[in-house]
Amino acid sequence: MTTVGEPGVAPVDPDPPIQPPTRVRTLRPTRATWPLWAITAGMPVMFLIGAHGLIWPLVSVVVMLRLLSHRETTFPWTTAPLVVFVLWTPLSFAATTPSALPIFTYRWLLFAGCLALLVWVVNVPTDTLPTERIVDWLAALWICTIAFGYVAQVLPHLDMPSPLSTALGPLGRVDFVARISSWHLADNDEFLTTSYARPAAPWAAANSWGAAVGILTPFFVRSWLVDASRRRRQAGIGLLVVSAVPIIMSANRGLWIGLTVALAYYAARKAFRGKFGAVAVLFAAVALVGVALVVTPAGGLVNDRINGSGDSNEARSELYVDAWKGALESPLVGNGVPRPTNYYENSPPVGTHGLLWYLMFIHGFVGLALFLGWLGLEVFRSGQVRTTLAWWAHLSLVIALVEVPYYGLLPHVMIVGVAAGIAHREATAAKELRAALAAAHVP
Length: 443
What we know:
Blueprint: E1 2-4, H1 34-38, H2 43-49, H3 55-68, E2 74-76, H4 80-88, H5 101-123, H6 131-154, E3 159-160, H7 163-167, H8 175-181, E4 183-184, E5 186-191, E6 194-199, H9 206-224, H10 230-242, H11 244-249, H12 253-271, H13 277-295, H14 298-307, H15 310-329, H16 355-382, H17 388-403, H18 413-440
Parallel strand pairs: 1-2
Antiparallel strand pairs: 3-4, 5-6
Helix pairs in contact: 3-5, 4-16, 5-18, 6-9, 9-12, 9-17, 12-13, 12-17, 13-14, 15-16, 16-17, 16-18, 17-18
């Protein structure tokens, strides 16, 4: 295996020249691409059979085996911190008991899958899997997630074993396995005097649903609104409008923050280059949201969510303080597993409610520094690649970085790895294009 070094490139233009699409769009996988399809466009199928939670580590193992079987696999230089992270974190198991091994391994495989998918996307030939198809499949996962948001409002209390969990017998009734393989559509939460169905499927919980929508939204925009036919763009605008209902009903403040930061960041990048159309879109979006909150029931929901979150905020504060103290007790390898709490009945364990705190408590400050160092490096690096596809992958990485303090991002880190892989693909494509143009001008 070798390491690829990449020289710096020109600063990104968020609005580079648009090239007319020439590809044939398809959601069908091939023998070579089914692992990525299974966790993106194939997620509705995975949910119907109950494999939506178990497919992630399986894909991780399959992709890792594929990479290890090819000696010519190349690793982008920016993955160095992530490689060390994946090798370092198994040391955290020393702080746990043997009974924690299955869950510990499951979560470790998600981070290993993040690295494996990144490297696989970089190495798989574009004629086998075009970058545009990866984006289309990620956009399909966004549509699937939004669609389940509507289903959750119709069947908010549906929570039953899936065909797979039933077929697994006693194993399917194990709490962790049941939680990630059952048909669970919504988390029904109480805010003040009102009960709300917060969409969860095809993810494990409402917060996971919100984190996914945030990370996937840039890919939906790229697939359905940019470089799209007129009919596809019109359909995309319609889908974007109707997505507002489950996004608001999810009561995910973190999702609202992530999308707001992304839109503001996009508008700022455009404005710095003298293009103020995105700024106008930003103000128009703020105005439309303001009107919607006044003239629709959404305003009451948002108000209840903000005013009725005192217990949630207090519990999170306690979790953060205890996560910090726990990390200080074991700063190198962490504590291995979340620690139960007794803040109140069914209070969440320490080491949850945010990837930042998970890494700090579970894997110590070393693991935290390695993973955040990698993610920060990918955000910075992707922001310098001057292609349209790289820009939307960069924006997805920015949203992921914003979500790190308050969303667990498991299994979302594997999608983050795909986004980083797309950015590296585009960096290579841009480099090759510059070289070809330079050669064409040689006398």
